[in-house]
Amino acid sequence: MIEKNNLRLIDANLNRLREGIRVVEDIFRYVYNDKDTSSKLKNLRHLSRLENYTELLETRDIQNDVLRGSIKSEQNRKDLFSILIANFKRAQESSRVLEEFCKLISIEDSENFKFIRYELYNLEIVLTKITSNSK
Fold first, then answer.
1. CA pair distance 27, 45, nearest whole angstrom
2. How far apart are CA 60 and CA 11, in angstroms?
3. pTM for the complete prediction?
4. Is the C-alpha dihedral spanning 55, 57, 63, 68 positive or negative?
5. Longest CA–CA separation in the chain, Å
6. Domain range for residue 16?
7. 35-79 pLDDT tens trace
C-alpha cells in the first residue's frame, strides 16, 4: 500500500499536468485554430490518468497545502509565449514527478508518464518555434 502523502503528491501532480497541458491545448485550439496540435495535446491529457481516482481524491488536502499561494513569477505573464512556456514547463515537471512516484505503484504507469514527458519535450521544440515566429 502506498502512503497517503505519496498519493496526495501524485494527485497534485496529475492535476498540475492536466492543467498545464490544457492551457497549451487551448492556445492551439482557440488562438491558432490548430486542430492537429490540439488533438495531440488532448490525447496526452487523456493519457494523464490513473485508475485509483477515488483513492487519490480522498488524499487531497488543499487547506494544508503549505505553498498554495502564488509567487511573483506565477502572477506575471507578459505575452502568449510566456504563458505557453510556463505551462509546458509545469506539465513536463509534473510528468517527471509522476514518472518517479508511480514506480511505487506500477512500472506501466511510470512509463506512461515518461512517454508523456518526452512527447511534451518534442512538442515544446516545435510549437515554441511556431509561436515565437508569430510574435
1. 14
2. 7
3. 0.84
4. positive
5. 50
6. 4-54+79-133
7. 999 999 999 999 988 877 777 667 766 666 655 666 566 667 789
Grid-cell match 509565449, residue found: 81
Report yes or no on 87 lying in a domain.
Answer: yes
Buried-exposed string 29-44: b where 16+ CB fall within 10 A, e elsewhere: beeeebeebbebbbeb
Contact 98, 107 (CB under 8 A): no
As for how many domains the chain has, the answer is 1
**Grid coordinates 509545469 are at which residue?**
90
Reading the block at residue 130, the C-alpha cell is 511556431
| pLDDT level of residue 19 (50, 70, 90 thresholds) | very high
The CA radius of gyration of the chain, in Å to the nearest whole number, is 16
